[in-house]
Amino acid sequence: MPDLGKYATEVLLSYGVTILLVAGLVWVSWRQSVAAKRRLEALEDE
């Protein structure tokens, strides 16, 4: 791990927040994909 100096806390916190936001976006996209597939299957069954 590189030496981040006196800004280590801020940098690591920023990395953590970024990882959480990206993971959240992936989760939301996945949930929307599942919901869209279910709606499409329901429409195709009609």
TrEMBL record:
One of its GO terms (cellular component) is plasma membrane. Keywords: Cell inner membrane, Cell membrane, Cytochrome c-type biogenesis, Membrane, Transmembrane, Transmembrane helix, Transport. Coiled coil: none annotated. The keyword Transferase does not apply. Pfam families: CcmD. The chain crosses the membrane at residues 12-30. It is a single-pass membrane protein. One of its GO terms (biological process) is heme transport. It is found in: Cell inner membrane. Belongs to the CcmD/CycX/HelD family. Required for the export of heme to the periplasm for the biogenesis of c-type cytochromes. This is Heme exporter protein D. It comes from Cognatiyoonia sediminum. The lineage of its organism: Bacteria, Pseudomonadati, Pseudomonadota, Alphaproteobacteria, Rhodobacterales.
